[in-house]
Amino acid sequence: MSTSMGRDATFTWQTKDPEVCRSCYGSFPEDYSHVGTRDIRRLDVLWMGDEVTEYDSLVKGAGNDRQNVPEYVKSVLRENVLNRSKEPD
Fold first, then answer.
1. Which of 17, 30, 67, 85 could join 71 via S-S bond, C-beta 3.0 to 4.6 A?
2. Distance between CA 88 and CA 44 in Å, rounded?
3. pTM surpassing 0.85?
4. Which helix (H) or strand (E) holds 71?
5. C-beta neighbour count of 8 within 10 angstroms
6. Domain chopping of the chain, boundaries
C-alpha cells in the first residue's frame, strides 16, 4: 500500500467503526468500497515475460505525452475502451 493510502487506511481504522473498516481497501483489497472513507478504486496490473515490452511502450508513450504512467494508462483506456462503450451499436 502506498504511503498516502496507508494514511487513509489509518484514518479509517481510527474511526473505530467496524463496518467502515470492513469495507476499506486496507482491510479487504479484494472487496472494498473505499480507501480511508474516500471514493477510490485501484487496479494493480502486472506485465510479465513477453508482456514487459508492452509496459515499456506505455512508459515511452507516457513520456512522450508528458504524463505519469498511471495517468497515461487511464487516458489510453478512456480513448480505446471506455469511450467505445458509449458509441451506439
1. 67
2. 30
3. no
4. helix 69-77
5. 21
6. 1-42, 49-86
> What pLDDT, on a 0 to 100 scale, did the predictor assign at position 54?
97
Q: How is the chain split among helix, strand and coil, in percent rounded to 5?
A: 55, 5, 40
Sign of CA dihedral 18, 23, 25, 29: positive
The x, y and z cell numbers of residue 20, run together, are: 467502515
- What are the residues whose beta carbons fall under 8 Å from the beta carbon of 1, sequence distance 6 or more? 9, 25, 26
pLDDT of 66 above 70: yes
Rounded-to-integer distance, Cα 24 and Cα 8, Å? 10
DSSP letter string, 2-13: -HHHHHHHHHHH
Give the torsion through C-alpha atoms of 32, 37, 41, 46, to 10 deg: -80
